[in-house]
């Protein structure tokens, strides 16, 4: 795989470390690519813990294959190829990672996990961290692509790789790569109707003041147990999911709140809330803490990722936050 470029300092240093068997130097050189490779694996797998594991697998494979690196491609390209193949191998062994289309995208993704913003690459201009390509709706939509289409779409339309480079990395012809990309784009348009689909145009990164205000109001409504205020924040065609429970539902705002009440929330003993505004998957989010009878502290209960449209919550994806230490949230307030 070639990038038609002279051997760079990074590649020369890597080759020297590989030939000398200097594991510490090898790790130091490859480690700088960890965050972007982990995001790549996350897009492929939609699961933070699996992305961590596959990124580590990428470095192990790179070490074992180090003698094969000749500097014909950039080190970054070479590592992406290894990470991609590691993810494809993983997907080939996991039948439960192929969702069955049903019109409810989240319902087939019980393995979906949130991604902490603090673990994103630090360069805000990097296409690897464009907000539109890390939000939950995008991650879910990508999972509906067959694995080979998935990686072609990510490499071509998200990372901006040219067709020959993508084809060579995947050991495909340019024609088959182009065909896979065309089919992937059709699926993505169907999965993300009404969303911006040109991933190569300038992307947003920051929350709007409107989004920040809605998150604050969402937390305030919980802390005051103000169900009318909470209902008013939700769009009447709200899409709601609470993972890992199966099923995404489109419901009215009132039915959503009534369902939470019937499940025991906002009732005596489950009505003492605190919250922290944060961002996850570059989306506005609220970390919710609940103090139950017999406990002196508010303990981390759930995190709600919000897609906000025109000042209202159009999509709410909740996660049980008790098993997500990587989000780096306080366990109690």
From TrEMBL:
Record-annotated RNA polymerase sigma factor 70 region 4 type domain positions:
138-187
Gene Ontology MF annotations: DNA binding; sigma factor activity
Q: Which residues form the RNA polymerase sigma-70 region domain?
A: 31-95
Keywords from UniProt, A to Z, are: DNA-binding, Sigma factor, Transcription, Transcription regulation
For this protein, the record's PROSITE patterns field holds:
SIGMA70_ECF (PS01063)
Say if the entry is tagged with keyword Flavoprotein: no
InterPro entries xrefs:
NTF2-like_dom_sf (IPR032710), RNA_pol_sigma-70-like (IPR039425), RNA_pol_sigma-70_dom (IPR014284), RNA_pol_sigma-G_actinobac (IPR014305), RNA_pol_sigma70_ECF_CS (IPR000838), RNA_pol_sigma70_r2 (IPR007627), RNA_pol_sigma70_r4_t2 (IPR013249), RNA_pol_sigma_r2 (IPR013325)
Q: Which GO terms describe its biological process?
A: DNA-templated transcription initiation; response to stress
Task: Show the Pfam families listed in the entry.
Answer: Sigma70_r2, Sigma70_r4_2
Record flagged with keyword Chaperone: no
Name the family. Answer: Belongs to the sigma-70 factor family. ECF subfamily.
Spell out the PANTHER family in the cross-references.
ECF RNA POLYMERASE SIGMA FACTOR SIGG, RNA POLYMERASE ECF-TYPE SIGMA FACTO
The entry describes its oligomerization and partners as: Interacts transiently with the RNA polymerase catalytic core formed by RpoA, RpoB, RpoC and RpoZ (2 alpha, 1 beta, 1 beta' and 1 omega subunit) to form the RNA polymerase holoenzyme that can initiate transcription.
UniProt protein name:
RNA polymerase sigma factor
Name of the gene this protein is made from: rpoE
């Amino acid at each position: 795989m070639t990038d038609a470029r002279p051997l760079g300092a990074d590649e020369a240093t890597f080759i020297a470390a590989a030939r000398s068997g200097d594991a510490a130097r090898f790790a130091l050189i490859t480690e700088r690519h960890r965050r972007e490779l982990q995001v790549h694996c996350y897009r492929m797998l939609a699961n933070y813990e699996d992305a961590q594991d596959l990124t580590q697998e990428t470095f192990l494979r790179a070490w074992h294959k180090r003698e094969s690196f000749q500097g014909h491609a950039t080190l970054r390209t070479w590592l992406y190829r290894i990470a991609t193949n590691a993810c494809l191998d993983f997907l080939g062994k996991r039948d439960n990672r192929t969702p069955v289309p049903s019109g409810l995208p989240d319902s087939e993704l019980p393995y979906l996990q949130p991604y902490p913003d603090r673990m994103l690459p630090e360069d805000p201009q990097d296409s690897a961290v464009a907000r539109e390509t890390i939000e939950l709706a995008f991650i879910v939509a990508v999972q509906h692509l067959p694995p080979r289409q998935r990686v072609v779409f990510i490499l071509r339309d998200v990372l901006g790789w040219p067709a020959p480079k993508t084809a060579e990395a995947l050991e495909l012809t340019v024609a088959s790569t182009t065909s896979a990309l065309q089919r992937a784009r059709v699926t993505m348009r169907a999965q993300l109707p009404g969303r911006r689909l040109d991933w190569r145009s300038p992307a947003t990164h920051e929350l709007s003041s409107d989004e920040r205000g809605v998150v604050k109001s969402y937390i305030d409504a919980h802390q005051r147990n103000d169900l009318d205020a909470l209902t008013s924040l939700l769009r009447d065609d709200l899409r709601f999911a609470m993972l890992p429970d199966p099923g995404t539902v489109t419901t009215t705002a009132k039915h959503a709140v009534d369902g939470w009440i019937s499940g025991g929330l906002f009732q005596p003993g489950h009505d003492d809330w605190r919250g922290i505004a944060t961002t996850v998957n570059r989306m506005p989010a609220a970390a919710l803490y609940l103090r139950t009878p017999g406990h002196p502290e508010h303990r981390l209960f759930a995190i709600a990722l919000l897609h906000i449209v025109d000042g209202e919550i159009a999509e709410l994806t909740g996660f049980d936050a008790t098993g997500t230490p990587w989000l780096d949230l306080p366990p109690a307030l």
